[in-house]
What we know:
The chain is of the alpha+beta class. It contains nine helices and ten strands. It has helices at residues 22-36, 50-58, 61-81, 88-132, 183-201, 207-228, 300-303, 315-321, 327-342, and strands at 139-140, 143-150, 161-168, 171-179, 237-245, 253-256, 259-262, 294-298, 350-357, 367-368. It has a six-stranded antiparallel sheet. Strands 3-4-5-10 form a four-stranded antiparallel sheet, with helices on one face. A hairpin with a 2-residue loop joins β6 (253-256) and β7 (259-262).
Amino acid sequence: MRVRHRATRFTTPWRPTHGLLIVPLAIIATTALIDINTPETVHLGPFLIAAPALTAAFAGPGMTAAVGALAVVAQIVIAALHGGISTPNHEAQIAAVLVISVFLVVFRRLLDRYEQQLGRVRSVATVAQQGLLRPLPRRIGPLTMASVYIAAEAGAQIGGDLYAVVPAPGVTRMVVGDVRGSGLPAFGHAAVVLGAFRGSAYRNLSLPGVVSHIANASYWNMAQLAEAEPDCNESFVTALVLDVRDDDHSVPMLLRAGHVRTLEVSEPALPLGLGAPSESEYQVETFDFAPGDLLLLYTDGVIEARDRKGTFYPLADRLAAWTGTCPESLVRHLHDDLLRHVGGRLGDDAVMIAVTKASGDVRGAAASR
């Protein structure tokens, strides 16, 4: 199973400072001075086009046009001092600088429009992702928690990993999952799963009832998509669903007094979306979860992360070696350590959620996957 949390940070397109204009202006001035002071048989005018070309790399169409105009003027001055503007060679050079400058201005204008459109798309993607994956509260009932979401691709904002925490009478309900695939289709499947989870979590359903409701919603959503698009790839969702109650808790990986225990259900259910199950098909399993224990939920983007030698990330070993106490410091430590292990870039998205309980004697909850 895997969970992902990616840092959603965007950078705005780089814009020039006045100091950067020194470079293209220096190119124009240097080229003109050298050309004027060399024999008429030597033609350096074509080098002037480097000035607007360089400007287009960091400035907008207006500044590019201004530098291009200066380049044309410089070429005219050179022509006037070297045989006259009306000579065929100089006319060709002036025309070439003018035409290429106009082309660069048009190119820069189109690029600006593309960047603006891309910025709007990214803004919509950010809002959609934030609406789907709402930030987890640091404290909910007796539980303290922290999470981290790491994106496999720096520019991607919409994916299929999902997680949610919902308070309900006497319990805290949690889901962590991963949709097969990526992009908008996976985002849509994740939205259905989270919508079904949030819609059912407040009803007095048993844990198997919640999972059954989510599984049916996922199945019928995917069935409708398959009917509308017969050629679409088959998809499904692997998920962990659990209740953390005042007297009952559940975990996939438990840290207790420096020892790590992996909590696996004996009979995992089918992934969500592969059928329309009934509540009776799910079995509840319980695990001890005492005060001071720490619960770690994660997606397979964590444990399947490899270093350059192909070695998987040793999550259990790193968790056992950790000496902190609070969930926030754990996810921060694992986030940094995981990125060091893979050399800075994950091959898949990853989520980690750490939970601990303030006080009270509790028993493990139920998990269905």
